[in-house]
UniProtKB/TrEMBL annotation:
<keyword id="KW-0464">Manganese</keyword>
<dbReference type="GO" id="GO:0030145">
    <property type="term" value="F:manganese ion binding"/>
</dbReference>
<keyword id="KW-0645">Protease</keyword>
<dbReference type="InterPro" id="IPR043472">
    <property type="entry name" value="Macro_dom-like"/>
</dbReference>
<keyword id="KW-0479">Metal-binding</keyword>
<dbReference type="Pfam" id="PF02789">
    <property type="entry name" value="Peptidase_M17_N"/>
</dbReference>
<keyword id="KW-0031">Aminopeptidase</keyword>
<dbReference type="InterPro" id="IPR011356">
    <property type="entry name" value="Leucine_aapep/pepB"/>
</dbReference>
<feature type="binding site">
    <location>
        <position position="261"/>
    </location>
    <ligand>
        <name>Mn(2+) 2</name>
    </ligand>
</feature>
<feature type="binding site">
    <location>
        <position position="345"/>
    </location>
    <ligand>
        <name>Mn(2+) 1</name>
    </ligand>
</feature>
<dbReference type="InterPro" id="IPR008283">
    <property type="entry name" value="Peptidase_M17_N"/>
</dbReference>
<feature type="binding site">
    <location>
        <position position="345"/>
    </location>
    <ligand>
        <name>Mn(2+) 2</name>
    </ligand>
</feature>
<protein>
    <recommendedName>
        <fullName>Probable cytosol aminopeptidase</fullName>
        <ecNumber>3.4.11.1</ecNumber>
        <ecNumber>3.4.11.10</ecNumber>
    </recommendedName>
</protein>
<keyword id="KW-0378">Hydrolase</keyword>
<dbReference type="GO" id="GO:0006508">
    <property type="term" value="P:proteolysis"/>
</dbReference>
<keyword id="KW-0963">Cytoplasm</keyword>
<comment type="function">
    <text>Presumably involved in the processing and regular turnover of intracellular proteins. Catalyzes the removal of unsubstituted N-terminal amino acids from various peptides.</text>
</comment>
Length: 496
């Protein structure tokens, strides 16, 4: 990846950069800080605004080239609308929109004068949005189009009290870095990111104080993770389980736990997927990407919480050693599963990873994230992830955090009627519901059977982790969905 924005926080000072950014409220009202930047150009700005029908409406942007009366090449005016009504995500989005304009102009440096009436947290939120917008995955482009540009925009956010903003920005930046890690991993091609390479990415978090343990196939075999290993046995690339521990909370306090599906490439195995669109299956590790991104965010901001993150890392390939439809394997839980469809592999990986997590760490709760089912996409499209949980409080905490961060989610049902659909006379369960209908829920109840009554939620991010709609802070294929929402959930409910 290339990061095209760098952010610095500074006190108010005279304008020096060639590109200046100020803010306008509704009816083109300017704070005194913006008027100080514009100086004699204020009248020019008012005339230009009338011509452009720019009124300061929220998210509106006006651009002036070399405004008379200013010692600057360009002036950008960003609309706030009714500033006192702006929510957290509005400030983040505005940061992304302003950064997007700066990148389109190929600005190498810009100074943004933030209104003094805004809070330090709002300034940090704005900066986070600008930073997130700068992400671009171009690692493998050796000949770049000149139109794309190749230099980062150095953004200086000028505020009334830099000392108040800087620690908040440091925290927001850590969360953004976690999100960008998740995006990068999802964008990375599978030929360079196998299970071993993914596990090495987890190992790198030890630099932030994370305890990392990597379980190889021999260790997983010893533990009885036969379902997870069955998925990877058709690949020449060995499977791994990455276990990350952050001890930022009180000693002895039970951790919160997150488990990610990390199928680095999913052909479907013997139940082979259609060829069209299969290239997107490099992103079938979006759940693991979100979980490692979350751990980077927690460690990066030194979150006062104990957290466990577990990644089940495999590749699903159809060679002569691959599992077959009709095979029966014994899971780590001791339950047996009949594999009717080898393309319903993510739940096999997660089932063993969930059992391992609850058995070893006895967490307060477990949340798993997975690009698990096309059925969830049929229900919710690319707009929301599906949340499944028998615990109303946990489900509400997740969904509320999703609304706050615009990583939106919607609760979908579990229940006996779905659980009965995965019964089979040949084993304790089967890995599909046996029909097209209710596929997201039958996948979820399979996972539920591996939680051992631990408080648990499943988030199906099949429609949101990759190929989702572009927005103010995410313009690429991979979104990093889940990092910001789950970080917020932890911060709101489980720290201290």
């Amino acid at each position: 990846m290339t990061q095209f924005t760098s952010i610095k926080i500074a006190q108010y000072s005279d304008a020096t950069a060639a590109v200046q950014v100020v803010f306008a409220g509704e009816e083109l009202s300017f704070a005194i800080e913006a008027e100080g930047v514009m100086g004699a150009a204020g009248k020019t700005v008012e005339r230009a605004a009338k011509t452009a029908d720019f009124t300061g409406k929220k998210s509106g942007i006006m651009h002036l080239l070399a405004p008379e009366g200013m010692n600057a090449d360009r002036l950008i005016v960003a609309g706030l609308g009714k500033a006192d009504e702006l929510k957290e995500q509005d400030w983040i989005n505005l940061g992304g929109e302003v950064a997007g304009k700066l990148l389109a102009l190929k600005a190498e440096a810009a100074e943004i004068t933030f209104p003094a009436a805004a809070t330090a947290q709002q300034a940090a939120d704005f900066a986070q949005g600008a930073y997130l917008r700068g992400y671009k995955f171009d690692t493998y482009r050796t000949v770049k189009k000149e139109a794309d540009g190749d230099k980062a925009c150095e953004i200086t956010l000028k505020v009334q009290d830099a000392a108040a903003v800087e620690p908040l920005w440091a925290e927001a930046e850590a969360v953004a870095e976690g999100t960008l890690l998740a995006r990068t991993l999802v964008d990375e091609p599978a030929n360079t990111l196998g299970p071993v390479e993914f596990a090495a990415k987890a190992q790198q978090l030890s630099d932030l104080g994370v305890d990392v343990e990597i379980l190889d196939e021999a260790k997983m075999q010893e533990l009885g993770m036969n379902a997870l290993l069955a998925v990877g046995q058709g690949s020449v690339r060995p499977s791994r389980l990455a276990v990350m521990k952050w001890n930022g909370g009180k000693e002895g306090d039970a951790p919160v736990a997150f488990v990610g599906k990390g199928v680095v490439f999913d052909t479907g195995g013997i139940s082979l997927k259609p060829g069209a669109g299969m290239e997107d299956m490099k992103g079938d590790m979006g759940g693991a990407a979100a979980v490692i991104g979350l751990m980077k965010a927690l460690a990066g901001r030194k979150a006062p919480v104990n957290a466990i993150c577990v990644l089940g890392l495999v590749e699903n390939m159809p060679d002569g050693n691959a599992i077959r439809p009709g095979d029966i394997v014994k899971t780590m839980s001791g339950q047996t599963v009949e594999i009717l469809n080898t393309d319903a592999e993510g739940r096999l990986v997660l089932g063993d990873a969930l059992w391992y997590t609850q058995d070893r760490f006895a967490p307060k709760f477990m949340i798993d994230l997975a690009t698990l089912t096309g059925a969830c996409m049929v229900a919710l499209g690319g707009h929301r992830a599906g949340v499944f949980s028998a615990d109303d409080e946990l489900a509400a905490q997740i969904c509320d955090a999703g609304e706050t961060t615009a990583e939106k989610m919607w609760r979908l049902p579990l229940g006996d009627e779905y659980d009965k659909m995965i019964d089979t006379p040949n084993a304790d369960m089967r890995n599909t519901g046996g029909a097209r209908w209710g596929g997201a829920s039958t996948a979820a109840v399979y996972l539920q059977r591996h939680t051992n009554e631990t408080k648990w939620a499943h988030i199906d991010i099949a429609g949101t982790a990759m190929g989702s709609k572009k927005n103010a802070i995410s313009q690429g294929w991979a979104s990093g969905f889940g990092v910001r929402a789950l970080n917020r959930m932890i911060k709101d409910h489980y720290e201290g």
